[in-house]
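I am writing to request your help with a piece of structural work I have in hand. A protein sequence and the structure tokens that stand for its backbone fold form the material at issue. Please examine both parts with care and let me know of anything in them that strikes you as inconsistent. The record follows directly beneath this note.
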Amino acid sequence: MINFISNYMQSPENPLYPIEIDDYPKLFDYVLTADGLVFFQSLKRNYVLGKEMTQDEYNKLRLLYVYYATGNRNISEVFRWQELCVTLDNMGIPEKEMYQSKENLKDTNLITQNPYYVSGLYRKYTDYVKSKMNSK
């Protein structure tokens, strides 16, 4: 995932515009399992409490957060995921080695394939954001 998040581009009612809110569950190829939800809540709690985390844990938090928020059509959580990504980038914690983190989540059955996934749908959002950035 690449961060194309900017405050001036977010819609207050739909943070992933032009993707329709009802299409959020179709955005990503994986969704959380029940164990993945427990793990996500643990990572999120550690982050909120300011506990030391590894790069892999930050990667997994980013991934699980977006899967959780979009899978549940939870707009406020999508905004929080976006804020988290910006905050981590500003703290010097970039997205790196994400592939390995995602593979580990799959191998440990914390995520599973999303049967509703529509390939290329997320690109619609990133293309929209890029076009807005280029027009400014």
Observations:
- The CA atoms of residues 24 and 70 lie 5 Å apart.
- The longest helix spans residues 55-71.
